[in-house]
Write a structure and sequence with these properties.
The protein is of the alpha+beta class. It has one domain (29-220): Sandwich (Jelly Rolls). Helix content is 20%, strand content 28%. The protein is built from two helices and ten strands; from the N terminus they run αββββββββββα. The protein has helices at 2-27, 218-240; strands at 30-31, 65-67, 71-75, 96-100, 115-131, 140-145, 154-160, 180-185, 191-196, 205-214. Strand 6 (140-145) and strand 7 (154-160) form a beta hairpin. Helix 1 packs antiparallel against helix 2 (218-240).
Length: 241
């Protein structure tokens, strides 16, 4: 009987651990933290533990975010002639924002549009966006997909519309100053990618504070289910005894 009780105690602990892992993974968000790269670089595999288009930036952190080859980071006020980086007031306070270039000079052909991948899957996504000069002519859509690179089943959409408020830029040459925060969740399935600017206007939008909620860890789920099955089996044996 003592051995059985010890086994049950161990399985109960395993179940508690599994439940804890499921709970923490379901609630914790993974945030794209920008600021370590040179302005204007193409992100490439930097946030997958790889490199961006500038070797001196070194190896980036593996946060699970992958991007289309036209995805760049921009610091405020560094590319006034092209419009890249002309932002103010970004809500996250990060020193860089995410922008998608109209063309790609990173040496890698981009044929799949502007997208973000999170290959392990996510159940919600949120970010802030600003449209150039807060103009409705640049309204677009962010679409959430079940597959990578904007493939698979369309799970949800986010309208990227001008706020209607006047341009509040303090610097006359800046264009991205009115930010709107959006969130999409409760998908009918697990999402793996987001495409930005379905109307073809993603190069007239900038994005800040991107974060996703990863799906629960499969290992934690198996641990929880195994513990439950084990407890049920031992309970039956104890009843027979």
């Amino acid at each position: 009987m003592t051995m059985s009780i010890n086994k049950i105690t161990g399985l109960a602990a395993a179940m508690a651990l599994g439940a804890g892992l499921l709970s923490s993974s379901a609630q914790a968000s993974t945030v794209l933290t920008l600021g370590a790269e040179h302005t204007g670089v193409y992100i490439l595999n930097y946030y997958l533990g790889g490199n961006d288009s500038l070797p001196s930036d070194g190896t980036g952190p593996n946060l699970g975010f992958g991007f289309s080859t036209n995805a760049t980071v921009q610091k405020a006020g560094d590319s006034a002639n092209t419009g890249d980086g002309r932002f103010e007031n970004n809500p996250s306070g990060q020193s860089e924002i995410l922008a998608f270039a109209a063309d790609n000079s990173s040496g890698v052909l981009n044929t799949g549009g502007s997208y973000m991948n999170f290959a392990s899957g996510f159940s919600s996504v949120s970010f802030n966006y600003a449209l150039s000069s807060n103009s409705s002519q640049f309204n677009g859509t962010a679409n959430i997909w079940s597959g990578l690179n904007g493939t698979g089943t369309l799970l949800g959409s986010i309208a990227l519309n001008a706020t209607g408020a006047g341009n509040s830029c303090a610097v006359g040459t800046d264009s991205y100053c009115n930010w709107t925060g959006v969130t999409a969740s409760n998908f009918a399935g697990v999402a793996e990618s987001v495409t930005f600017g379905a109307t073809g206007t993603s190069d007239f939008a900038e994005f800040d504070g991107l974060q996703v909620t990863p799906v629960p860890l499969p290992a934690a789920a198996w641990l929880l289910l195994s513990g439950a099955a084990g407890l049920a089996g031992f309970a039956r044996k104890l009843r027979r005894a």
